Amino acid sequence: MTTNASVLAWIDQMKELTNPDTVVYIDGSEAQLEQLRQQAVKTGEMIKLNQEKLPGCYLHRTAVNDVARVEGRTFICARTKEEAGPTNNWMDPKEAYALLYGIAKGAYAGRTMYVIPYSMGPVGSEFSKIGVELTDSIYVVLNMAIMTRVGDAVWEVLGDSTDWVKGLHCKCDIDEEKRYICHFPEDNTIISVNSGYGGNVLLGKKCFALRIASFLGRNEGWMAEHMLILGLEKPNGEIKYIAAAFPSACGKTNLAMLIPPEKYRKLGYKVWCVGDDIAWMRIGEDGRLWAVNPENGFFGVAPGTNEKSNPNALHTTQKDTIFTNVVHNLDDNTVWWEGLDKNPPTNALNWKGEKWDPASGEKGAHPNSRFTAPAKNCPCISPEFENGKGVPISAIVFGGRRAKAAPLVYQSRDWKHGVFVGSVMASETTAAATGAVGVVRHDPMAMIPFCGYNMGDYFAHWLEMGEKLGDKAPKIFNVNWFRLDDEGNFMWPGFGDNMRVLNWILDRCEGKVDAVETPIGYVPHPADIDIDGLDVTEDTLKELLDVDKDVWTAEAADIEEFYKKFDRLPDEMKKQLATLKENLQK
Ligand code: GTP
Ligand code: SPV
Ligand code: MN
Q1: Catalytic residue among 57, 250, 273, 378
Q2: Which of ligand 1's atoms lies nearest the C-alpha of 482?
Q3: Which of 330, 361, 377 is the last residue of a domain?
Q4: Measured in angstroms, how far is the CA atom of residue 300 from the centroid of ligand 1?
Q5: Is the CB of residue 299 below 6 angstroms from any atom belonging to ligand 2?
Q6: Are residues 521 and 397 in the same domain?
């Protein structure tokens, strides 16, 4: 419990509003969490899985209409529409409070209010931040207890400070028409109603650690980014750190937990996972950029995760994990999803809880089904994971899902050009958000759904960070694992073999290899990407690295169109676009 006056006053106000039967403070103890698990099993909110095969694991199904983030119903309620900017939905804060308090009124009647004190980043670290989430969902409590650091230790660190983020979540009736995910950056407040799905309701994650934190970062001179953080250990024991931003369901978790190809493993290469989704980065005393993963677990995409693609993730989910919207194998009370193996269970329920026949051709798991697993389960979790100072970043990598256009990898000419490269990212949409899948959309820095303020100002903030970092700035790259051939097959094997591209990236950072200058930046000499032992021919590699002038001329026109949206586009970005167009005409 806490004696913090600002917290207690707010909880009183929210009690008055939501009218719960009881209030339970989450203390972080295993005993309390276990009691909640039992309660959730009793009510059917969770299914206890085979405890011999999957100790501590549970299955949860969301409502059928509530399976992904709802970007159309996510709002940045800054004081003015201009502050929210052209890429965010905006609602006037007064109106938003009135609307959402109206929906939340009496929403906890007959229910329990759970009070979750949580820390983003190690508890008590200088760079960590505290939030309090109120929820009427045990599923949310149990997920937050995996994804963040929860419990009494957080109250102790908070003391009587008013520097914390308020989060109110009400399940209500999971009514799509009344679903709102609202952020009030000027008030450090988040309100989420009528959803029970991850990114909409685990308020520490996208709502706080990206939308609110990006706003705080801009004001305080640091960055909150949709990035994985990995450490690449070389045979001599040296570890270099890379941060990479890919849009949702575009390969962050997979890259973060990469297992190098056998040949590299034998040489002594190893990848350490610091984070798989979010990076908070600030300039350290040494002038370099340091990154912390504010989370404590992984909320990962289940489909496609298997012993070959991501054995580390699979291993991570073998205990103390909550699975959401996957297949329930009734034969042995375990779980399954598309791409796990070639033996779908025949006696099984699909993600909706209906009897499912794998021969029907229908998917059993939802494409955005997820696992929530503790970071400490991960076999390759970095020894620096709990280090609140973070790790120094050598390279920043942007990437998306592009069938054509973007080459396997290229390097920006400098930081400013790198900001441009990030700003013109485009990627095919995925099942992580509701709406059409496979449509190419612009997604600067993979932050389109997560930037908590005007994105023109966000670009300016990136430019400013570069000014401050000077020659200590990480080098900026772009990758694309998803290029397709004319038959629609991936041209690059991806997954563990992405290590071959990371090697080139670090070689470039260390000035070890030359590159080919193209209109869009530096591309590798084909000989510098190791394809030894791969099914990739030299011709394919050349094609993967090809920068087609016609395609990029069309791309430049498209960027110009996209940029028109921005009311506060820094001049530097316009200059960069002009340079690209010039380069393409040479
Ligand atoms: P969020 O959690 O939504 O932010 O997603 P993420 O960026 O962490 O994506 P994740 O690593 O979970 O990958 C999403 C999907 O892309 C999975 O189905 C993967 O199997 C697939 N994928 C990941 N890496 C590669 C790759 O290198 N090549 C190919 N072809 N597919 C990949
Ligand atoms: C994403 O969609 O980018 C995720 C999952 O990482 S969610 O928590 O739903 O945002
Ligand atoms: Mn994500």
Answers
A1: 250
A2: 30
A3: 377
A4: 9
A5: yes
A6: yes
- Which residues line the pocket of ligand 1, CB cutoff 6 A? 246, 248-254, 276-277, 300-301, 303-304, 309, 432, 481-482, 490, 494-495, 498
**425 close to 442: Cβ distance less than 8 angstroms:** yes
Q: What is the 3-state secondary structure (H, E, C) of 529-559?
A: CCCCCCCCCHHHHHHHCCCCHHHHHHHHHHH
> Cα(254) to centroid of ligand 1, in Å?
6
Residues of the chain whose pLDDT is less than 70?
none
Domain that holds residue 186: 5-45+69-221
Predicted confidence at residue 1, as pLDDT, reads 86
Euclidean distance between CA atoms 35 and 441, whole angstroms: 45
Of 532, 507, 541, 524, whose CA–CA distance to 266 is shortest? 532
Written as six digits, the tokens of 340 are: 């796990």
Cβ–ligand 2 distance for 171 under 6 Å, the answer: no
Give the domain CATH number at 33.
3.40.449.10
Is residue 59 included in any domain, yes or no?
Answer: no
43-102 pLDDT per residue, tens: 999 999 999 999 999 999 999 999 999 999 999 999 999 999 999 999 999 999 999 999
316: enclosing H helix or E strand: helix 311-316
The model's pTM is 0.98
Atom of ligand 2 nearest to the CA of 301: 5
How many folded domains does the chain comprise? 3
Answer yes or no: is 201 within a domain: yes
CATH value at residue 309: 2.170.8.10
Active site residue 250: yes
Residue with tokens 């990739």: 536
Query: At which residue do the structure tokens 């470039």 appear?
Result: 508
Radius of gyration over alpha carbons of the chain, in Å? 23
Which residue, judged by its Cα, is nearest atom 3 of ligand 2? 248
pLDDT in tens, 298-329: 999 999 999 999 999 999 999 999 999 999 99
pLDDT in tens, 91-141: 999 999 999 999 999 999 999 999 999 999 999 999 999 999 999 999 999
Of 228, 246, 253, best ligand 1 pocket probe by most atoms within 8 Å of the beta carbon: 253
